[in-house]
Task: inverse folding
């Protein structure tokens, strides 16, 4: 994958990760017994669905230009990005095991991106 395609793929993963945080905010904003109106008027949910929609279109464009076996491993980075963003923005705990697992995922993405034919 060329540099621009790699950058766009990383941006797509970052947007998916931000979408997860927005889904968390949407869930926290719902009342204990949400009704249909609560779901339909949840601003966090609307924004997260819009972000996911745009990101999905971007992902389709990426897959049109990159082999799936090269692009898809980047999605594994979300397993590191989401907990780190949750720690930074939502003040959730971040454990060393998460960071160690994320380092292994990063190594796997690097290995996959350097595969023959990459």
Result:
């Amino acid at each position: 994958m060329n540099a621009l395609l790699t950058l766009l793929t990383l941006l797509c993963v970052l947007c998916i990760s931000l979408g997860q945080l927005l889904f968390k905010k949407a869930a926290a904003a719902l009342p204990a017994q949400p009704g249909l109106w609560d779901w339909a008027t949840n601003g966090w949910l609307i924004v997260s669905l819009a972000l996911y929609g745009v990101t999905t279109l971007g992902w389709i464009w990426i897959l049109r230009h990159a082999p799936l076996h090269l692009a898809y491993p980047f999605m594994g980075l979300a397993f590191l990005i989401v907990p780190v963003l949750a720690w930074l923005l939502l003040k959730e705990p971040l454990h060393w095991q998460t960071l160690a697992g994320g380092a292994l995922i990063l190594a796997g993405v690097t290995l996959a991106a350097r595969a023959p034919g990459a």
Observations:
- The first helix runs from residue 3 to 29.
- Residues 3-113 form one domain.
- The chain has a mean pLDDT of 92.
